[in-house]
Amino acid sequence: MGYAFLSGAIAAEVLATTSLKYSEGFSRFGPSLVTVLGYVVSFALLAQALKTLSVGTAYAIWSGVGTAAVAAVGLALFGEGLGLMKIAGIVLIVGGVVVLSLGGAH
Fold it and tell me: What is residue 28's DSSP assignment?
């Protein structure tokens, strides 16, 4: 069940970060509200995940997958570039998450 909570936490964090871009510096109410609620939900679900998962592994997955997902959202929705350095960074993030997960997920 911990990984289900963690998946929800990642989805909420990606939604919140995407909404942050649309909030235009918190000058638009709707996206600003989605941002705040998304981060609250994300942290609440992460806290539930930590009841059964180790903090290092859970945080690595939450931040790493979230970062890679937000990079993909930036590419798809905002036309952000995808150069060799960005690809290398995403590969390193995903690789680090895999190594941490294999090193002792409980």
Answer: S
